[in-house]
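Most newcomers find our protein records easier to grasp once they have seen one. Read left to right, the backbone structure tokens trace the chain's path through space. Nothing more is needed to start thinking about how sequence determines fold. An example says more than a description, so a record of this kind follows:
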Amino acid sequence: MTKTEPNTSVHESEAATDPLRTQLAGMHMSYVLQHYEDVATEAAAQHWSHVDYLAHLIEGEAQRREDRSIARRVALARFPVLKTLDQFEWNWPSKINRLQIQNLFRLNFIEERANVIFLGGVGLGKTHLSIALGHTACLRGHSVLFATAIDIINSLNAAYAHGGLKRELRRYVKPRVLIVDELGYLPVDKQGADALFQIISQRYEHGPTIISSNRAFKHWAEIFNHDSTLTSALLDRLLHHAETVVIEGKSYRMKDQDGTDPATL
């Protein structure tokens, strides 16, 4: 009976791959680490060149990193829910400029540092469109932050009380795109109005701000503690480079109460 010799080629192969695995892990190339052996088998079966094999691995690694970057940007944006333009009920509002909104999703306003203001009554999709626009910006590589106007004011007031106002202001000034939702649903006191004015002023011609409001511009002084001077200065900066989207109609959230099917409108 002959003695079985150890398979030295297997041991040599394992010894060679151990440093490779360590190096790939150290370089955080998890896709390559997970797939390089399977892809090597496919490459041999398909007679790929070495360059094709390498290109396949690098493409997978790049896509994995992009997916993780998108997920990180979406998480940091703090959207309350995720919405897309495809989900929007175009037939519900009685007045809406569909082409204008679809053009906004080309995101040219970001490069132009122009603001976007959605105006209309409650339940017409202003927040939906703001989130969808912000989500699209995340997919295209831009940093985004979503917050209601009241949450912004409350966080700035708390920071002011603890001596951290400048740091908290940077939180809202730094993102490439800032979304301020529900401006005008509740009145703003003088300190809150001053804080919002600082944000708009510091973002002016540096980064676009998306705002949704249920108030026409002529009534914004009522939002800001009836301070017409501050309101005028804020609107001057906000509207200098801006696109205003006006939406009219009945609240979508009320459709089930009156039995109306939005698809028939």
